[in-house]
Design a protein that fits this description.
The complex is a heterodimer. Chain A is an all-alpha fold. Chain A has twelve helices and no strands. Helices cover 76% and strands 0% of the residues of chain A. Chain B is α/β, with parallel strands linked by helices. The longest helix of chain B has 14 residues. Classes of the chains: A mainly alpha, B alpha/beta. At the A-B interface, α1 and α6 of A face α2 and α3 of B.
Chain lengths: 276, 241
């Protein structure tokens, strides 16, 4: 793992030698900071006159402000993460440095874990920036720590799964810009799918004129399809966690997702040895 | 030191190497000569573990390259044809990084870096960013990364291509001064380079080794030229589809 550490360290440093690291973290700071201020001001307005906004009492701080803010931060990271992942492996192919890396005494796992580790380190910095925003409120509120910690945890876990998908896409495409655009497209698609699925009716039924077995089958298939669409998007599982609710399936979802895409990255890198 | 047996490589239906066999003794300097597209770079990429062969075996030291890729890579220093480096790093940090991924300890790392910087004449650009180096210095740096850790086998793919005459002389001197500590396999299509640097030349054409010449430094280059032209002009040697 020493080699993976060296690869990761080089990658992390080079991210901040070039402007890309500052641009990504700057954008995350700007967007999450602006969203924080605007949401907080809105919450203040709501809590001053809740009736105007359709509430009977002052709404819960965590539920109304904090957890939606964390979910928003996760979505921001999702759409900005191609800027982190697009360069991970595809840039090595594009610049030709992969020829050097693959002729050094390194295992594929050193390269993949090193690259992924550096991306996770950038994600940690982003989560740190988000944490600073929320920390500013500590003296003025009696915030539930579970919501705060689970919220940050949901952003990190969601970011980890997103980065693993980006890493996989980067291992398939030799042009960093194309890899970034494809990643962005995939995230957008997942995001739209999640929103569409939420608006789909819970049940569908065929007219009574259809035979019973056909109606039953269609209903079951529809239910399966809708459930799948609801579970698939990467941001959906963060919502519960951001409310401070501990659901093992959400954590397992992100861990499995990450493991799956890292595994696919291994296969993609190994594939150079399959081409006879 | 290097033993190649019936190495064949297909790119789809195109056969880039056809049952190539040769052997190189320890401390020997061998030139791989051939026109463009002869299969020299493919051969070198297979030997360095960058890509697998379709058929055949190759042994470096006592390790077969497909069975023990890590052990083989520890024995090799490789300068690719297109020297791609991390442009955003400084020469110093790049060489340190290479030393570390080659598995050298911190103490060995410092000694190894100092040694290659001196050998390759990189002192004046040691603190500079790689992206601003001239082509000659980039080539030296490429050679330096290959030499780090003093691997017993050095594989150089067209080390002087694209350099100006003075840089060519400098790089050739560097390779000459490698001494007998290393077994060198050098690919080129410049005949004079082989006569200056190597003791033996393998001539490749259309994916095959078509001839082998022992170089006599006292004889003029013209003789190598004639042998080379005769070898590549042989009829019946062609690329199969």
């Amino acid at each position: 793992m020493k080699s993976a550490w060296n690869i990761g360290k080089r990658e992390f440093i080079s991210f901040f030698v070039t402007p890309s690291g500052y641009v990504v973290l700057g954008l995350i700071a700007l967007l999450t900071g602006t969203a924080f201020v605007l949401s907080f001001l809105t919450y203040v307005q709501i809590s001053q006159s809740p009736f105007q906004f359709g509430y009977t009492t002052v709404p819960d701080f965590e539920e109304t402000f904090l957890s939606p803010y964390f979910v928003f931060c996760g979505i921001m990271i999702m759409f900005l993460s191609p800027l982190i992942t697009m360069r991970l492996i595809s840039e090595e192919y594009h610049k030709g440095t992969m020829e050097l890396l693959l002729t050094y005494p390194l295992r594929d796992r050193d390269i993949i874990f090193g690259k992924f580790g550096s991306a996770l380190a950038v994600l940690l910095l982003a989560v740190g920036l988000i944490a600073i925003n929320v920390f500013l409120l500590l003296p003025f509120t009696d915030m539930e720590w579970s919501v705060f910690l689970f919220g940050l945890c949901s952003v990190f876990l969601m970011g980890m799964a997103i980065l693993s998908l980006g890493l996989f896409i980067s291992s398939l495409i030799t042009y960093p810009i194309t890899a970034g655009l494809v990643s962005f497209g995939v995230y957008l698609l997942l995001f739209i799918v999640g929103n569409v699925a939420e608006k789909m009716p819970q049940k569908t039924s065929l007219p009574n004129t259809f035979p019973g077995f056909l109606r039953g089958s269609v209903e079951n298939i529809y239910w399966l399809f809708r459930s799948l669409l609801l579970e698939l998007p990467l941001d959906n599982h963060a919502k519960n966690m951001a409310l401070g609710i501990f659901e093992p399936k959400d954590i397992v979802y992100y861990l499995l997702c990450t493991a799956f895409f890292v595994f696919l990255t291994f296969r993609a890198l190994e594939s150079r040895n399959w081409r006879k | 030191m290097i033993e190649v047996r019936k190495l064949t490589k297909y790119y789809g239906s195109f056969r880039a190497l056809k049952e190539v066999s040769f052997s190189i003794k320890e401390g020997e300097r061998v030139g791989l000569l051939g026109p463009n597209g002869a299969g020299k770079s493919t051969m070198m990429r297979i030997l360095t573990g960058f890509m697998p062969a379709s058929y055949g075996t190759a042994t470096i030291g006592k390790y077969e390259i497909h069975e023990y890729p890590l052990e083989v890579k520890r024995l090799i220093g490789y300068l690719p044809e297109r020297v791609s480096l991390y442009d955003e790093m400084t020469v110093k940090s790049f060489l340190k990084f290479v030393a570390k991924v080659k598995g050298l300890s911190s103490t060995q790392c410092k000694i190894a870096v100092d040694e290659v910087v001196q050998t390759c004449g990189l002192e004046e650009v040691y603190s500079r960013v790689v992206g601003v180096l001239s082509k000659g210095f980039r080539q030296r740096l490429g050679l330096a990364q290959a030499l780090i850790g003093s691997p017993p086998v050095i594989i150089l793919d067209e080390p002087t291509v694209g350099l100006d005459p003075q840089q060519v002389v400098e790089i050739r001197d560097l390779i000459k001064n490698l001494g007998e500590r290393h077994t060198v396999l050098l690919s080129t299509h410049i005949l004079s380079e082989v006569s200056l640097l190597c003791s033996r030349a393998l001539i490749m054409n259309a994916g095959e080794i078509v001839s082998e010449i022992t170089i006599d430094p006292t004889k003029p280059t013209v003789e190598i030229e004639q042998a080379f032209l005769k070898a590549i002009a042989r009829e019946g040697v062609g690329i199969e589809k």
